[in-house]
Amino acid sequence: MGKFKNSAFQNIFASGMMDDESEFLPIIADGDDKDLKNVDVPSVLPILPLRNTVLFPGVVLPITVGRERSLKLIRDVNKGSKLLGTVAQKDYTVDRPEKEDLYDIGTVAEVLKVLEMPDGSTSVIIQGKRRYRIREFISEEPYFKAAIEPLEDVSSKDDNEFNAIVGSLKDLSIKIAHFSANVPPEATFAVKNIENSTFLINFICSNTDLNVEDKQKLLEIEGLKDRGIQAISFLVKEVQMLELKHDIQKKVKTDIDRQQREFMLNQQMRTIQDELGGNPVEQEINALKEKAKEKKWNEEVSKFFDKEVGKLGRLNPAAGEYSVQFTFCQTLLDLPWNEYTDDNFDLKHASKVLDEDHYGLEKVKERILEHLAVLKLKNDMKSPILCLYGPPGVGKTSLGKSVARALGRKYARVSLGGLSDESEIRGHRKTYIGAMPGRILQNIKKAKSSNPVFILDELDKVSKHFHGDPASALLEVLDPEQNGEFHDNYVEQDYDLSKVMFIATANSLSTIAPPLRDRLELIEVSGYLVEEKIEIAKRHLIPKQLENHGLKKSQVTFTKEVIELIIDGYSRESGVRELDKKIAKVVRRIAKKIAFEEPYNKKLSKADIREYLGVIEYSKEKYQGNDFAGVVTGLAWTAVGGEILYVETSLSKGKGALTLTGNLGDVMKESAMLALEYLKSHAEDLDLNPEVFGNWNVHVHVPEGAIPKDGPSAGVTMVTSLASGFTQRKVKKNIAMTGEITLRGKVLPVGGIKEKILAAKRAGITEIILSEQNKKNLEDIKDDYLKGLKFHFVSTVMDVLEIALLKAKVDKPLKIS
After folding, report:
1. Other beta carbons less than 10 A from residue 687's beta carbon
2. Pairing of strands 105-116, 83-88
3. Which DSSP string corresponds to 222-290?
4. Does residue 142 have a cis bond before it (omega within 30 degrees)?
5. Average pLDDT over every residue of 804-810
6. pLDDT at position 310, please?
7. Which residues, including other chains, have CB under 8 Å from residue 303's CB and lie 6 or more apart?
8. Which residues in 751-771 are b (16+ Cβ under 10 Å) and which e?
9. pLDDT by residue (tens digit) across 40-99?
C-alpha cells in the first residue's frame, strides 16, 4: 500500500455507499502501481456487494456496513487475510442481492481499518488492489464466495498522447471542482499532486459524478489509455452541464438585481407620495383594515386576514401578485361572516305566503310547513335537507323562493345543471390564475347573509368528470354534521353553513348519487290537473304577463273556456311553463294591436286564440272507442306527466311470427313476448285452440312510432290486446290499465300512479285497472282527482281479461284453420 502524500487526506472520508444511499469522497494512496500488480490474490475470495459505488484499484474508500451478511464477511476477513472481492450491485435498492444482481468484474480490496461508530454502525476503510473477473460462485452462505480470475490493467507508454489525456483529465477535474460547490478544495489539491498516472485516472473515475453503470463501464476497460479517453468524454459532458447551470444562475441573479432596483425606486416613490399627501396603495390597505374592524369573524379568521393584509403591504403594487392578493383580501371582507337575518317563524304567515304564490300542491305545502315548525322548535338547521322532485314547470324553484319570503330570509340559488368540476363547489386554490371561491360561497357573498334559503337547482343533472365528482363535494355542503366547517379551497378558512336552509330540486331521482340522496328529505311535486292549471293561469300567469307587457286588466279578459283551449290545444306538460309562454304570446299580440290602434276583442274567444297561436298543436287525449278487437288503452308515465297510449294487435295468415313496432325499448318488447307466451300456455282457459298460434302471424303496434317507449307497465295492456285479437272479443268501453305481468300470470305494481290517473281523467276514461298492490297509492291522491273514476284492483292476468274483455265476439270472428 502506498503512502498518503498529505496528512490532511487521513481525515477526509464521508460515508461511502454499501447499504445506505449517501455521498462519499474516495481517497487515493499515491505510490508505485507495481505494488498493486504484485498483490498475491487467492483463487477464491469472499465477495462484498457494494451499493451505489464502484471501487477502483488504488482508491481508498470508507464504507458503512449494515447488512448482517456483510458484517459477518468484514469481521472474518479482518481476522484473516484482510483481502476480499468488491463488486457493484446492478440495482442498489435490492437489499439481499442474488448472483444475478451483481456485475462480473470487480476489484480486489484490502481491509485497512474497521471502525465502530458512536451511533452503533460499523465503518470500514478499504483500498482497491487490482481488478478481477468472477468465474463462478462457490457458496452463498453465510456470504458470497467465488472463484476469481485476476485481471491486469494494460499500461500505456508515457507518450505524448497519453500525457495529453492525463493532462486533460486534470484540467477537466479542476474545472469541475471550480464550478461545483459540492467538491471540497482538498479534492483539487489531490488531483494536482497525484504524480502516478494510473492512480490519477482511477481517482478521477472513482470521484466523477457518474451513475454506477457508467463507472462499471470504466472499470471494465482494460487499457488505461482507453479508460482515460472514456473518462474525458464523461467529464466533458459534466463540464458543459455545469457551465450551462452557471450561465442560468448569472441570468437569474441579473433579474433579481433588476427587481431589487425596482423595489428601491418604488420605495422612493412611496416616500415622495407620502410627502405630497398620501400613498394611494397604503390608503387602499388602510381602508381594508378599517372595514375589517366591522366584521364579526372569529379570532382565527381575524388573524388570518391580518396576515394576508400584511403580505399585501409587502408586495410591489406594479406586480401581478398584488392584484391577486388584493382581490383575495377583498373577498374575505365581502363574505358575511356570522352575519344573519332574523327569522320570521310565524307559520300562519308562511302558510299565507305559500298559498299566495302557489295554487294546489297541498301535500307539498303541508310538508314544508312541518319542516318550518320543526326548525322553529329546535332553533337550528340540523334537520333533513328538503328535495323537491317532479316534472319541469310545476313550481319547484319558486317554492323555495316562497319559503325565503315566508321566513324573511335572503334568497340564493345555484344551478347545478351540467356541473362537472368539483372546484365549482369547493373553489379553486389561489395558486391558479383566475382563482375564485366556489359557487356556494359566491352566492352566500351575493346574498350578504350567512343564513339564506339556498336553492340547489337541477341536482339530478350533476355529472362526473376527470376534474372530480361535484356530487361528492356536495355531501359536505348538505350534511348538517359537516357543513358547520365547510372548507373552500380559495378562502382557506372553514365557513359555517349550518344556518343555511338548503332546498334541492330535481326532475328525476334516478341520477342522484345514493349517498347524496340519503341526506335528502324527498318531497314529490307532481303535475297539475286542467282545473288547477286554469286557476294558476287566472291567479298568477295572466296577471304576471299583463304586467310584463304593460297591459291593464281592463284591456283583455281570458275566459275559462279560452284558458282550457290553450291548456289542451297548445301545451302538453305536467307543469305550467309552456302555458306561461303561450299566454305571453297572446298578450304580445294584443299589445301589438293596441300599439297600432287596431281593433281587437277585449273578451277573448276561441277564434281569437286560434288567430294568435295558430293551428292547434296537440289533439286532446281522448278515448277513441272500442270498435275493433285487439285495440286496448294503456297508461304511461313520461317526464312531463302521464299519458294514455294504445296497443294494437293485428293477425294475418302465417306461421306464428311475432312483429313489434312503435319504437319500443327492450323491456317493452319483452313484455309483448311474455304476454304471447302466457296466452299460449293458457289457451284453453280462453276457449282458444292452441293450434291457432302456429297459423297466424301477430303484429303488435304502439302508435306514435317516432316517440321512444319503454318500461314494464304496459304488460297488462299487451296481454289484453293479444287476447282480444285472438279471441275476437272487444275491449270494454272507456277502460284503461297499467301493470307489469309475470310468466305465471301475476300482475305487479308500477309507479307514476297519480300522473297516469290524471292522464286517464283528461282523456275521458271512466274505469282503470291497477295491481292490487297499487291500491295504497290512491291514499295520497286528492279525492277531486279520483271523482268519476272506477278502479278495478287485480292480482292475476285472468282477472284483467275477465274485467276488460266483452263476452260476445265480433260479427266476423277469426277463422282458425
Report:
1. 9
2. antiparallel
3. -BHHHHHHHHHHHHHHHHHHHHHHHHHHHHHHHHHHHHHHHHHHHHHHHHHHHHHT--HHHHHHHHHHH
4. yes
5. 79
6. 85
7. none
8. ebbbbbbbbbbbbebebbbbb
9. 788 889 999 998 889 988 888 888 888 888 888 888 888 888 889 999 998 888 888 888
**Residue 595, CA atoms < 13 Å, CB-side half-sphere:** 9
CB 635 within 8 Å of CB 737 = yes
Cα–Cα distance, 329 to 305 (Å, whole number): 7
Rg value, the chain, Cα: 45
Burial class (CB in 10 A: 0-12, 13-18, 19+), 640: buried
Residue, of 649 and 639, whose pLDDT is higher? 649
Higher-scoring residue by pLDDT: 513, 801: 801
Measured CA to CA, the distance from residue 609 to residue 612 in angstroms comes to 5
Do residues 172 and 231 make contact, with C-beta atoms less than 8 angstroms apart? no
Q: What is the identity of the amino acid at 645?
A: L
Q: How confident is the model at residue 364 (pLDDT cuts 50, 70, 90)?
A: confident
Q: Closest Cα to residue 64, out of 118, 108, 143, 106? A: 118
* List 396, 754, 756, 761, catalytic entry: 756
d(CA 291, CA 333): 7
Single out the residue of 750, 745, 532 nearest to residue 634, CA to CA: 750
Question: What is the number of residues in the chain?
Answer: 817
| 756 assigned to active site | yes
* C-alpha torsion 663→665→669→672, nearest 10: -80
List the grid coordinates of 184: 471540497
d(Cα 805, Cα 508) in Å, to the nearest integer? 36
Instruction: Please choose, from the candidates 116, 115, 109, the residue with its C-alpha nearest in 3D space to the C-alpha of residue 132.
Output: 109
In terms of C-beta density within 10 A (0-12 exposed, 13-18 middle, 19 or more buried), how is residue 786 classed? middle
Cα separation, 202 vs 105, in Å, equals: 15
- For residue 618, what pLDDT is reported? 73
* Angular region, 672: left φ>0, alpha ψ -120 to 50, beta rest: alpha
pLDDT tens digit sequence for 415-448: 888 777 778 888 888 878 778 888 888 888 888 8
